[in-house]
Design a protein that fits this description.
- InterPro entries: HotDog_dom_sf (IPR029069), MCH/BMMD (IPR052342).
- This is Acyl dehydratase.
- It comes from Bradyrhizobium archetypum.
- By secondary structure, the chain is an alpha+beta fold.
- It has one domain: Thiol Ester Dehydrase, Chain A.
- It is about 20% helix and about 35% strand.
- Strands 1-3-4-5-2 form a 5-stranded antiparallel beta sheet, covered by helices on one side.
- It is elongated, with a radius of gyration of 18 Å.
């Protein structure tokens, strides 16, 4: 079993991952494939945008958050996501930004229908090197329970 289980996690726990260095080529390559807006793939056009330069698209920022969840320390034994709420991206991400993830456990409860899992409600915060939030949301996830705990659930 990989990572911390439901029984190992407490409300208030914080887990971190990163940094992830965002590159100009990553921003352009992602935008070319998934968000082909001129201001995301052309530096000259980006210079005339409201951001005054190249910035990462929202889906790339979200993808970096997902990538960093696999690098959390300590790792959690995630089984699956149940949904995201209140997703905000209040600040742009630029080439050379260094992004760090912080995950905070807000709530936990045992699954009523499946004894082998629990449910966590988490606050996700992705910040750049200036500690500015670039992504924040609430997420509900399924997390494995320890095999010896299933019988008591």
């Amino acid at each position: 079993m990989g990572g911390l289980c439901f029984e190992d996690v407490e409300v208030g726990n914080r887990y971190t991952a990163g940094p992830h260095s965002v590159t100009k080529s990553e921003i352009i390559r992602f935008a070319q494939q998934y968000d082909p807006v001129l201001e995301k793939i052309d530096e000259e056009a980006a210079a005339h945008s409201i951001f005054g330069g190249l910035t990462a698209s929202g889906p790339l920022i979200f993808s970096i958050y997902i990538l960093l969840t696999s690098q959390l320390q300590p790792r959690l034994h995630f089984l699956g996501g149940l949904g995201w709420d209140e997703l905000r991206m209040p600040n742009p991400v630029h080439p050379s930004d260094e992004l760090d993830l912080e995950l905070i456990v807000l709530e936990k409860r045992e699954s009523k229908s499946k004894a082998d899992r629990g449910i966590l409600r988490l606050r996700i915060i992705l910040r750049n090197q200036r500690r500015e939030t670039v992504l924040e949301c609430l997420v509900a996830v399924l997390i494995a329970r320890r095999p010896d705990a299933k019988a008591s659930g």
